[in-house]
Every structure is written in structure tokens, then in C-alpha cells.
Structure prediction request, 273 residues.
Amino acid sequence: MWRIQHRLCIKFVLRFVTPRASCAAGSCMLPAALAGIALIAVDAAVDVAHAAPRMPPHMTPVTGGPIIIDAQGDSTMWGYQTSDAFTRSWQSPNNPPALLQAALQARFGPHVIVQNNGVPGATLVDRERGTNGYALPYAQWAATSPARIVIVNFALNDADNHLKESPENFRANLVRFIEESKRAGRIVVLEEPNPVDYAVNKTIVPRYVAVVDEMAKHYRLALVRQYAYIGAIRNWRSLLIDHVHPTDALYRLKAQRQREVLEPIVAKLASRK
Prediction:
């Protein structure tokens, strides 16, 4: 951009300020002086362009303290993947919190941080009690965490454990989670699970998804809709690496849908700083 401005300024100088060859002796001093001033202005314009490059139009940097997002959930939040009939497992680098952070930082800069606090095998009651991989009950965790936003994705393990944790119990625990989050000053974002390719998906999981949707409506919370959206994709089962956990392609899709919901929330917080 500065090169274009430079050429335009030089063109101006040559056209309007350069002394004419026919001028009489001594009559060209003023135009020559103006030419010198104009060239100084050119140099100044170039220096300013170098010193203050324009920020990309899509970038809205966060200033001040960080905006931290606490990503809570089970293995599908953590980014779990398996092979060889579950004998090998690993965390995908394309786990949703990592992808969500990259997308948000692309717009808001490095002060937006997404913490991946998913725990494979966990249920919502585990998170509430601080058991099965959690060091603290959620109320204590939320009271000491600096996170401004919490996104929560449970339901699959809860549905698997439906004989002990009914949809009604799941609802009670989700109410408790939401209330504890609000008391800690957190913005709560609920997220539906992805569908899974085994029997419980048809009969049990929808009842837990309905609880998530119900609580989002009751508390007027932001909701990341995943279950029906993914289930409507042709051959959606091919997006599961082991009938349960997403492939990288599905993790990317889930993270994209998270971003669509969280980006306006982060933008609003950033505008207050």
C-alpha cells in the first residue's frame, strides 16, 4: 500500500511542482522549494506507513486480561480417539478446545484461551462430585478458576449409565452445575453430544439431549446444537472412528459449531475491556 501512495505523491510532485524549463532565471525558486516540501511529505508518509501497519479487518484484539474459556465434558470434548478395537488410544491434536482456541485467537488475538478440561469416561455427576479424574468438586473448581465462560458437553456416558443416573438425575445435576457456574460469575454455554453408532443412541441418548435443550431454554443459555445436525449428515457414521468418538473431520465440524456460538460472546466481553 505504501508503494502506491509513494508513486501517487511523486506523480503529484512531478506534475504540479517541478519547475518548467522555460522559466526565467530566479523565477523558479518557489516551485523548487515546494518540490522539496512535497518530497519531505512523501518520506513522512512512507515512514508512517512503515511504523503503523494496518491490522487485518477481521482482527478484533482483546486487550487487558485474558478471556479464559473452561471446556468441560467427556472424551468427546477431550478429543479421544482409538484403533484396534480400543486397544490403542490417544488425544487428537484436532480436539475441539484446541481448534476453538485457534479460531478465536485468529480474530481476537492470543488473550483468548480455551482450557481443555474434558475427562474421558466422565459423567456429569463425576464432574459435580469431583470424582473419576477430577481433583475437586465443581463448585470449588468454579469458585477458584479464572475462566469467564464455561462450555459443557456431557450426556453420552450418562446415557450409558442410565440405570444409575436417569434423565431426571441428569437434569438435577445439570441444574446444579448451571447454578454453581452462575454463582461463580461464569457465562454458561451448553453443548449437545454427537450421536453414536450403537443401540443406546436410538432409545436413550435423545432423552439426555432433550434435558440439555430444556435447560438451555429454561435458563436462556447459549446452546451448541450438535446431535440432530450431525445425525442429519449423510453417512454420519463414517465420521466416527470407533462408533463413538469423532474422526478429525467430525472434531473440526464440532469445533466450528462451537465457534459460531462462542464468538459473539467473546466479542461482547472484548468490547467491555
In short: The domain at 67-272 is CATH 3.40.50.1110 (Rossmann fold). The CA atoms of residues 93 and 165 lie 31 Å apart.
